[in-house]
Amino acid sequence: MHSLPHTLQTLPGDSDILLNGLVLDFVIKSPVRMHLKNSECPLLTEPILAELRKSGINTVLAFLSRDSETLIHVCSLTYQVSITEAVSVKKVLLAKYSALPHPLDEILDEAPIAHLPLGCESLDGLLGGGLSAGDLVELCGPFAVGKTQLCMAAAAAALAAGARVIFADTKGEFSSARCRQILHHRRVPHSECDRMLDRMQYAACSTVRDLLSLLEVVRSRRRLHAGLRLLVVDSLAALVAPLLASPGFVGFGLLNFLGTTLKSLAADCRLTVVVTNHVVQNESGAAPGVHPALGLGWLPVPHVRLLLHREVAANHASEPQFCLYGPRRTAILTKSVSSACGGSAEFLVTPSGIEDPVCLRNEDLMS
Known about the structure:
By secondary structure, the chain is an alpha/beta fold. The chain folds into 2 domains: 6-97, no CATH class; 112-366, 3-Layer(aba) Sandwich (Rossmann fold). 39% of the residues lie in helices and 18% in strands. It has helices at 6-9, 46-54, 60-65, 68-75, 79-97, 104-110, 121-126, 147-160, 176-185, 190-197, 208-220, 236-244, 250-269, 320-325, 362-366; strands at 115-116, 131-132, 136-140, 164-169, 200-204, 228-234, 272-277, 279-282, 289-292, 304-310, 329-335, 344-350, 353-355. Strands 5-4-6-7-3-10-11-12-13 form a 9-stranded mixed beta sheet, sandwiched between helices. It has a two-stranded antiparallel sheet with strand order 1-2. The chain is elongated. The two termini are 54 Å apart.
């Protein structure tokens, strides 16, 4: 369903033009010049048209923008007789000048979700093809599990795809040299690397206020950020966790507002927002084990959640991949709005970003 024209979005509502609970969007051609005529509807008699013109109701748009009670008063007609006629005229005009409503499943089929492949077959398969536009994706795991490396690999993939990237760094761990290394190992020439990195904007955010200001700039200047495909916040927990420990509920309120802002920005700008989070260990309760930090209120916020684990070194000490690149990482899909949860994928952090353990190139193993 197309969005309503601006001239109609600001008009007063009228419950009797809601057909079966669907708000019809209008595709009216030159509504100012389209005058009401008797040929539009037999109920629009010449005396009624004359009364409408005296009140400045000359066009189809002007007629539809008035509620039925106002139209009856203007025409000096009896309420009981005319309320049905006014509604009937509106339905006739809507049927003639509005677009037809479409079922939701047809709309979704017509607008496929764009995916950003990460270049790692196992992870892309786990995510249904990559990072989805419009999603808030959370990467959570313990310290040094590879969250930041995964973020920079995603940023490099977006740059290689010709998109723009904003990287909000709250820990001071971002490295443009690492992004350049990833692009170089993906066979991107040095001169092209410079042009790609020009499409990445770096923002150091030390407070929640800094992050909210950044998000407001992105929303208010959408045209200046044309081509923006990925927004990374590394790490969200580093900003919010200290506030949650303070007295009162200010921290929880800010977290709720921040989550709502991130999700709406992803949906409105059709980009992917990736945030990183720590984990906490819960030894008791109904669900013992490792859980994302930031509390129970944060759990339902992201669209997609990947829980990252790191293998113990002794388990793979004899493998050449482990000796070169460290232990295997495992990503478990614990939440998703479009894919089955519970699946997992293994990957390695390599000079090329992230790769499948079984797909490493021979030159990488020999270097």
